[in-house]
Amino acid sequence: TTLASPTTKDLYPDWKPGEPVPYAALCTTFSKIEMTTKRLEMLALCSLFLRQVLRLSPDDLLPTVLLMINKLAADYAGIELGIGESLIMKAISESTGRSLQHIKSDQNEIGDLGLVAAKSRSKQPTMFKPKALTVPGIHKAFLAIAKFEGQGTQGKKVDGIKKLLSAADAHNAGKNIDITKDKGGPSEAKFIVRTLEGKLRLGLAEKTVLPALAQAMLSHEYLQKGKKVPSTTEIAQAESSLKSVYSELPSYEVIIPAMLEHGIMNLRENCHLQPGVPLKPMLAKPTKSITEVLDRFEGKDFTCEYKYDGERAQIHFVAHDADMELATAAPAAGKSEKGVSNIFSRNSEDLSKKYPDILAKLPTWVKEGTKSFVLDCETVAWDTEEKKVLPFQQLMTRKRKDVKVEDVKVKVCVFAFDILYLNGEALVNKSFRERREHLLDAFVPVEGEFAFAKYGNTNELEEIQTLLEDSVKASCEGLMVKMLDGPESSYEPSRRSQNWLKVKKDYLAGVGDSLDLVVLGAYFGKGKRTSWYGAFLLACYNPNTQNYETVCNIGTGFSEAILETLHSQLKEIVIDRPKPFYVHSSGNKDQPDVWFEPRYVWEVKTADLTLSPRYKAAADEVAGNGKGVSLRFPRFIKERDDKKPDQASSSRMIAEMYQRQESVTKNKGPSVDDDF
Ligand code: ATP
Questions:
Q1: Residue 582 pairs with which residues in a beta bridge?
Q2: ipTM of the complex
Q3: What's 674's DSSP letter?
Q4: Which of 8, 441, 567, 583 is 20 to 30 Å from 472 by CA-CA measure?
Q5: Tens digit of pLDDT for each residue in 490-507?
């Protein structure tokens, strides 16, 4: 057999070499993945399919991988689908000729718009056979739908979706699909709609697709060289190399072409962090006390930095005479006489439009000889008269978009605490001590504009205590304690690492860290609050099952002004029924008055944690007989608009907090359930 000819193992035989990847082939794979819950089987199916792509249509590898992880582009491009239910229902109705009422009642019954689309499409009589959809074609169409803006956007989006749905399931058009069988099977309409909703419901995450891609590439290279199968060691090497490249350079747009050019085993040498491609920031583990820090870092040298309370910012810069270019052109990159710069949020969103003032001043903080860099910083609101840090709430009053330098009222100061790249070289694998030296060498602080995070290197309890108190006096949240030397002190992108510990002032009492939770539902207010929602149902996220598990009702910590704003935000995303991936008690009296799409994340504090039959958070992990962990006396702190719902506190973290608390308070009496 030649490389191009189909093999018996192929998941989708009806696909000729050189043709664009048929979308039906991807949907067949998705459908097989949907039928299993085993991660290894999913991985094998993905890898098998990607091998076929590499063999028959390698040019389409990028859109295929993107659709598999349900993305249209790398995060920094800021392109998202997440189209609302009503728009999709309209498109289904108009493209299949079924009334909106029918579609709505189907949705009420089935609870999965994908299946509703599959059913509606299969009922439709067809006049002519539409042209089959392809992966690159559909990726392009999704991009166009996501990018529409300005007047008439909604109509354009509906038209775009209608076109896709009319072409869906060309091979099955007119046939009756039984949506109760095989979860609706490989219907294209089903997967189109789920992609539009932003949720494929396959349990397929990047942690499966990434190793599948590495395996597929390695096997493909073997096949090309006429060799048999790679060894398990080689597979492990390929996987770890791709994973580590991806953590430094989370952009398939950059990695896939490089992988095809250099081969998977040479990828590591050829692909490094690049200014212009934001990496996911390293995060810290919470601790309850300074003594816990001393226990964890015993015998190691560490440093204590102020934990500034602002917004994380990753600043990228390339000077015009740096002999290189910014790897991506984020739309609002700041250009100056000296060079081009970008600023990214914790979520890799482009913040250039929010902070043009930072981008304008940036070149003045850079020493001669500093030609390119990636900085990890916190932007903090700054009191220009008192010359000190202002609380986080001040920063939140800044506009997020289209800010003009001349209009900026809330000034910010950038506090830099790490440097990940300098003058053409990635520094992430250097020790923190070295990175800090580079940082201090390459920049000049300017009062009220740019500063280095304050720190003290000490292992003495009293001195750390003093630093903590001083940090709080300086309006900081507490301390970040970081390992200084050796491989443990390297920068670990996207990890909540043991080597960074946070000690917050308010840890010293209560449960410790605050939680970031997703709003799933609300209750109408009573008394003064009748025009708004008075209380809300919150949930944590379980990345393993991709479910949202409820954790508390909350009615405290809201001012009237906030309740009013929240109401106007939330009423836009009301849905008729809970999503199938919401896990909550089924008791009648436990149901909220309205349900929402999972969109908003709120930071919440709690007095302590307890088990409750009413909530389901971490129910599988705490062995509480179906009871979940819930928060007692939860209090609203603020909205976290820098976090997406799937970045909310995880069930695992809540289970750990509960277990830690239990081991401390074992001998206390039973706790009561919350009530508001
Ligand atoms: P939090 O609600 O505490 O900000 P988080 O999940 O956003 O939690 P953590 O890992 O808990 O992030 O805390 C680290 C955050 O603290 C960073 O994301 C950054 O925004 C901020 N920060 C402030 N000062 C520092 C510093 N000196 N070093 C590292 N991070 C700092």
A1: 548
A2: 0.96
A3: P
A4: 441
A5: 999 999 999 999 998 765
